[in-house]
Amino acid sequence: MSRRSYGGTLLTDEQRQICELARQFAVEELRPRIEERDEAEGQFDRSPVDQLGELGFLGMLIPEEYDGLGLDMLTYLYALEEISWGDPSVAVSMSVHNSLPTQVLLRHGSESQKDRWLKPMARGEVLGAFSLSEAGSGSDAAALQAQAIREGNTWRLRGEKLWVTNGASADLVLLMARTDTPEDRRGTRGIGAFIVPTDSAGYVPGRKERKLGLRASETLAVALEDLVLGDEHLIGEPDRGFGYALEALEGGRLGIAAQAVGIGEAALDHARDYADTRSQFGSKLREFQGIQFKLAEMATRLEAARGLMYRAAQAYTANEPRRRKLSSMAKLYASEAAMYISREAVQVFGGYGYSREYPVEKLFRDAKVTEIYEGTNEIHRLIIARELYLERGMNS
């Protein structure tokens, strides 16, 4: 069953067992039904995610004191890469839950909030989602308009959020809304972070998006129709939510990098195996130099993406000053590598690669979104360039 040795990294016995378990789950549970889930567009199957929760994969980054596994970022990325190799649509649910709502709660939630929500999230009993984007605030995330109005000890939320992964099927959503007033807008310092149970009155899921890829992942708009929450649903300070979100997104970008690496590895595996079985002109495809060059380039970009992701994970764990730049680099490079590798895999398959009867066309569709969400690659190039100057103290 073993496909690789985790880059030669020395893992503890416990960590290796976790990675092997993730691989086994991908092989035995995810791969056999991947086409079925993809073709049932609009029908989110939560059962694989619930199974991941039962195995502990929804609490990997949460300390044991809050019922999590207390693992490091690198081990989590190993496991997420394996799940993405099995099915990227399932991996995105695992990534969002682990890197966004749980991490904001862990870092900025009160002890009562951690006890009420974080512990069941760590145990896999509660699935978390994340909501920042709106119709007018994609890359310009701070331009969001959903309003949280203070009314004594409660907040009344109004507005509409877009692109909410698992927005109807999750149990709670970490949601960003404005806490300043329309008459006194304060930019990034006028946004709060709220924990919103999805069974709350006024939380209204909309139509599911019909997407190019990740079709087995639920993505939809959510309307906030006079949704009332108590103060216990506000995380941290009412004007610091945007900062909390950006902080969590640094880890989220590493999750997308792992997803992209998993997609790339799956595409390479399929292309390599097909080139070993398909014959043309009396020879196997793998014997043609043109195909050899393609496979060599695909494999090289895959390992480069994986290596950069590992380096970024180390910087994240060590809280290095360069962690933001490295997480953007890892997401940027891995997503473009996944897109390249999956495109070349389609080419290796030839006409069959364009058919839905073969697996690489799905991977090609799935890869594209990794260049878009958790910050478009254009935005990440801006972040990287800005960080280069900040490192040298050139702020102007």
Helices and strands in order:
Layout: H1 13-30, H2 34-39, H3 47-54, H4 73-86, H5 88-99, H6 101-108, H7 111-122, E1 128-131, E2 147-151, E3 154-165, E4 172-178, E5 191-197, E6 203-208, E7 219-230, E8 234-235, H8 241-277, E9 279-280, E10 283-284, H9 289-318, H10 323-349, H11 360-368, H12 377-391
Parallel strand pairs: 1-4
Antiparallel strand pairs: 2-3, 3-7, 4-5, 5-8, 6-7, 9-10
Helix pairs in contact: 1-4, 4-5, 4-8, 5-6, 5-8, 6-8, 8-9, 8-10, 8-11, 9-10, 10-11, 10-12
Give an account of the 3D structure.
The chain is of the alpha+beta class. It has three domains: 117 residues, Acyl-CoA dehydrogenase/oxidase, N-terminal domain (Butyryl-Coa Dehydrogenase, subunit A, domain 1); 112 residues, Butyryl-CoA Dehydrogenase, subunit A, domain 2 (Beta Barrel), CATH 2.40.110; 149 residues, Butyryl-CoA Dehydrogenase, subunit A, domain 3 (Up-down Bundle), CATH 1.20.140.10. The chain is built from twelve helices and ten strands. Strands 1-4-5-8 form a four-stranded mixed β-sheet. Helix 4 crosses helix 8, helix 6 runs antiparallel to helix 8 and helix 10 runs antiparallel to helix 11. The longest helix is centred in the middle third of the chain and has 37 residues. The radius of gyration is 21 Å and the shape is globular. It starts with 12 loop residues before the first helix and ends in a 5-residue tail after the last helix. The mean pLDDT is 95.
